[in-house]
Amino acid sequence: MIIPAGWTRTLAFIVISPTIGLVAGLTLMIAIYWIFRRTTPGRVDHWFRRLQLVSAALFSINHGANDAQKTMGIIAGALFTSGYIDHFFIPNWVVLSAYAAIALGTLTGGWRIIHTMGSKITRLQPVSGFAAETGAAIAIFTATHFGIPVSTTHTITGAIVGVGATRRLSAVRWGVAGQIVWAWVLTIRPPGRSARARSCCFGS
């Protein structure tokens, strides 16, 4: 069964979330350039190498807050329909399993994505990495607040493109970005029975 109210918002945010990330990353990068315009590049690099740990943590928290809820909703829905739980709720072991799966997946298979995002779309420095991660975190937090599942990869891509464009348009490898967009289009799949579980989990 397909729930239009659920999947139409999801499809809309495939476009909206990268756009929010792009605007947020672009705006943050411009603001940083203006605030630190009289600071030496070495000092800026020194500060943002440490601040990037904060932005990475913020991005990771929002990643788990959004992506993990989709997984938890599907697992809890399967448990409920099969009779393992007598009413719909998220058991603690499901919560911990979802977070652990995302963490292990990122640890073991995330390097290729990180390499593509951090060097192939545009060359990121600590300051631009901070702006991209913070911008993407803002976009994901916005979607999570409204109970909408989004792709973390979509969002961070938009933020990185926005950050890269602040230097010059040619600093962004638009061919690579275009390939990523086509991959999104070719892998869109409207949610089926799992839509209800995700909606329950997100409180839609």
Describe the structure in brief.
With 204 residues, this protein is mainly alpha-helical. The chain is 77% helix and 0% strand.
Plain-language structure description:
The chain has 204 residues and is mainly alpha-helical. Helices cover 77% and strands 0% of the residues. The protein contains 8 helices and no strands. The protein has helices at 4-35, 41-81, 92-109, 111-120, 126-145, 152-165, 174-186, 194-202. Helix 1 runs antiparallel to helix 5, helix 1 runs parallel beside helix 6 and helix 2 (41-81) crosses helix 8 (194-202). The model is unreliable at 190-204 (pLDDT under 50).
Number of DSSP strand runs? 0
**Overall residue-averaged pLDDT value:** 77
What would you report as the Rg, rounded to the nearest angstrom? 18 Å
Distance between the termini: 16 Å
How large is the share of residues in beta strands?
under 5%
- Helices and strands, in order, run as HHHHHHHH
Cα shape: elongated
- Helix proportion of residues, in percent? over 70%
Low-confidence stretches: 190-204
Main pleated sheet: none
Number of helices: 8
Structural class category:
mainly alpha
